[in-house]
């Protein structure tokens, strides 16, 4: 069933087009840190969530590896820089993210939302899981769900990032972990047995061996399935007492349990702590870590509380509200791909995660799609429009933080990777550095550390190939942001070779329509438009900035590029 688009969606559409225009002429040379526009702020009517998120570009970054805006916090909590290669904290922080926001870096890529790795306080020590001594630089090893890790910055730094993003019309997704605490180390005691299980280890044979178990040997699994009341862990009580906030934290918990009526079971504490960030700072959504390793009933409960928290934040901060788009929850269901439809199979049972709080799931299949581009695009558009995934969203990627089999591991085709990803139906995840061909193989690094090198800003300093790669990703990202039809429109193949297709998003008498032509000759070219645009209409090519008028069912352009991104000139 085709997702209906309310009139309000077009208000958002107009805003997007306006903000894209202000990015400047596509193809113009731009320095790496050129200031982007500030998007129109203020309340905008609600857009259709599936349309928004299927056309969204989400920038996923490891805060510790992106930009170092404050060197005084690099060794916070006394953590040494003695991990294996790329397994210590490397200095990136929230101030660094803020700096890039203010430079307009994300605007220049057409980013709609930033997904930050978890920022909560991590274990203080380190562990070796077989790939060398490792610290919690990635954020998935929680020690205290209620504090910002001092290596990344402060609560004020976090607030500044979210506020600056919103001011530019960019949403922020919080990476939320509920399945496990951090590993146990000499400095990081195990949470009490009534809170966590430390065995058995998951064997992934069926539902129970995926959910009621620990992901790896030393990663205590929160007992999210139990309703028995538990007390606060003594270590947390002592920590909060030292920090002078024990009384306040206890009072807030009392109020939460009184309001909700939930038992004081482990998952409800964590739900309270995770939703507090939304209520306080206005995160626009969650990316749920390890979504298939805790019961789907938990995600539904978390979603309800998060929606309430988001509504509370909006009421308290009306001037910062972007629009009426509801709280978004995207799941990491490892191995999910859209051909599975709505039902993810654990072997012995299937779960429809979309029916349990999730609006979108990460697509783990896109990076290994090997059919023709049109085969991929046609299938995705069909399932998102008329198929099983109508009304929900997917997020495609070419590389990610723990996927050892990315598309183009050697970064030999960074332009092709950008084209494939940013023109695909469904949401697009740019993993930090995709747009700079940041290496995915690092000498001396083991396992996923290869995927997590520090952002290679230095490669932009002298121009050259990296600048050209970034320019390509920017043009495509801006085209995508200006035209929701690219990610959320109906797909039509117009010509097999050279490949030409159109995307069309219709609502209430207005239409967003694009035509993409690949593998064209450089220089003069005549592109048939197959009736997508009528004769006499003036079109603009977002890739080159060239303009032309449709005559006799075709448009003649002269550009230096093989890719053409056509839309009506407005
Ligand atoms: Ca730092
Ligand atoms: Ca679990």
Tell me about this structure.
The strands form seven sheets. The protein has an eight-stranded parallel barrel with strand order 1-2-7-10-11-14-15-16. Strands 17-18-19-24-21-22 form a six-stranded antiparallel β-sheet. Strands 3-6 form a two-stranded antiparallel sheet. Strand 10, helix 10 and strand 11 form a beta-alpha-beta unit. Helix 1 packs antiparallel against helix 13, helix 3 runs parallel beside helix 5 and helix 12 runs parallel beside helix 13. The protein is globular, with a radius of gyration of 24 Å. With 570 residues, it is of the alpha/beta class. The protein binds calcium ion (2 copies).
Based on the model shown, name its key terms:
570 residues, alpha/beta, 8-stranded parallel β-barrel, disordered N terminus, binds calcium ion
User: What structural class do the secondary elements suggest?
Assistant: alpha/beta
Oligomer: single chain
> Strands across the major sheet, in which order?
1-2-7-10-11-14-15-16
Rg from Cα: 24 Å
Which sheet architecture does the biggest sheet show?
Answer: 8 strands, parallel, barrel
- What is the count of DSSP helices, taking H or I runs of 4+ residues? 14
What is the number of beta strands? 24
pLDDT averaged residue by residue = 92
Broad shape = globular
The set of bound ligands, ions and cofactors reads: calcium ion
**Unreliable stretches, pLDDT < 50, 5 or more residues?**
1-46
Tell me the span between the first and last alpha carbons: 30 Å
Beta content? 15-25%
The percentage helix is 25-40%
């Amino acid at each position: 069933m085709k997702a209906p688009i309310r009139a309000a969606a077009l208000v958002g559409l107009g805003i997007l087009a306006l903000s894209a225009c202000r990015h400047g002429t596509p193809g113009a040379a731009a320095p790496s840190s050129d200031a982007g526009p500030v998007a129109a702020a203020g309340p905008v009517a609600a857009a259709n969530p599936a349309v928004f998120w299927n056309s969204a570009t989400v920038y996923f970054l490891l805060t510790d590896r992106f930009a170092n805006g404050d060197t005084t916090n690099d060794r916070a909590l006394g953590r040494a820089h003695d991990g294996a290669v790329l397994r210590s904290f490397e200095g990136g922080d929230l101030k660094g993210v803020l700096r890039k926001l203010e430079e307009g870096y994300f605007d220049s890529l057409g980013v709609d939302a930033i997904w930050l790795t978890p920022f909560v306080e991590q274990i203080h020590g380190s562990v070796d899981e077989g790939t060398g001594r490792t610290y919690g630089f990635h954020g998935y090893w929680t020690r205290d769900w209620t504090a910002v890790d001092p290596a990344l910055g402060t609560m004020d730094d976090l607030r500044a990032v979210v506020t600056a993003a919103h001011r530019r019309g960019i949403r922020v997704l919080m990476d939320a972990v509920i399945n496990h605490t951090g590993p146990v180390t000499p400095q990081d005691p195990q949470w009490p047995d009534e809170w966590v299980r430390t065995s058995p280890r998951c064997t992934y044979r069926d539902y129970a061996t995926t959910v009621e178990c620990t992901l790896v040997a030393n990663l205590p699994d929160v007992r999210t399935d139990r309703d028995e009341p538990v007390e606060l862990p003594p270590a947390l009580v002592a920590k909060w007492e030292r920090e002078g906030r024990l009384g306040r934290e206890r009072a807030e918990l009392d109020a939460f349990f009184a309001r909700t009526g939930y038992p004081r079971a482990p998952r409800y504490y964590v739900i309270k702590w995770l939703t507090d960030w939304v209520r306080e700072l206005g995160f626009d959504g969650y990316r749920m870590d390890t979504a298939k390793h805790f019961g789907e009933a938990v995600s539904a409960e978390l979603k309800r509380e998060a929606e309430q928290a988001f509504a509370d934040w909006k009421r308290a901060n009306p001037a910062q509200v972007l629009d009426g788009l509801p709280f978004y929850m995207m799941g990491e269901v490892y191995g999910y791909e859209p051909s599975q439809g709505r039902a993810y199979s654990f072997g012995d049972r299937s779960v429809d995660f979309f029916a349990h709080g999730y609006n979108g799931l990460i697509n783990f299949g896109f990076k290994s799609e090997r059919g023709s581009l049109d085969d991929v695009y046609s299938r995705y558009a069909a399932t998102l429009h008329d198929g099983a995934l109508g009304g929900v969203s997917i997020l495609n990627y070419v590389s990610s933080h723990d996927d050892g089999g990315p598309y183009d591991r050697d970064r030999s085709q960074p332009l092709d990777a950008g084209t494939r990803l940013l023109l695909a139906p469904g949401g697009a995840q740019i993993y930090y550095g995709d747009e700079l061909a940041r290496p995915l193989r690092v000498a001396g690094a083991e396992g996923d550390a290869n995927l997590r090198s520090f952002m290679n800003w230095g490669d932009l300093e002298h121009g050259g190939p990296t600048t050209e790669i970034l320019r390509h990703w920017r043009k495509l990202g801006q085209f995508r942001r200006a035209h929701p039809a690219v990610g959320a429109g109906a797909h039509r193949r117009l010509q097999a070779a050279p490949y030409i297709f159109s995307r069309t998003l219709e609502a209430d008498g207005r239409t967003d329509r694009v035509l993409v032509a690949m593998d064209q000759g450089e220089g003069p070219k005549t592109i048939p438009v197959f009736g997508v645009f009528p004769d006499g209409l003036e079109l603009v090519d977002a890739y080159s900035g060239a303009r032309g008028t449709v005559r006799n069912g075709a448009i003649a352009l002269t550009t230096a590029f093989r890719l053409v991104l056509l839309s009506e000139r407005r």
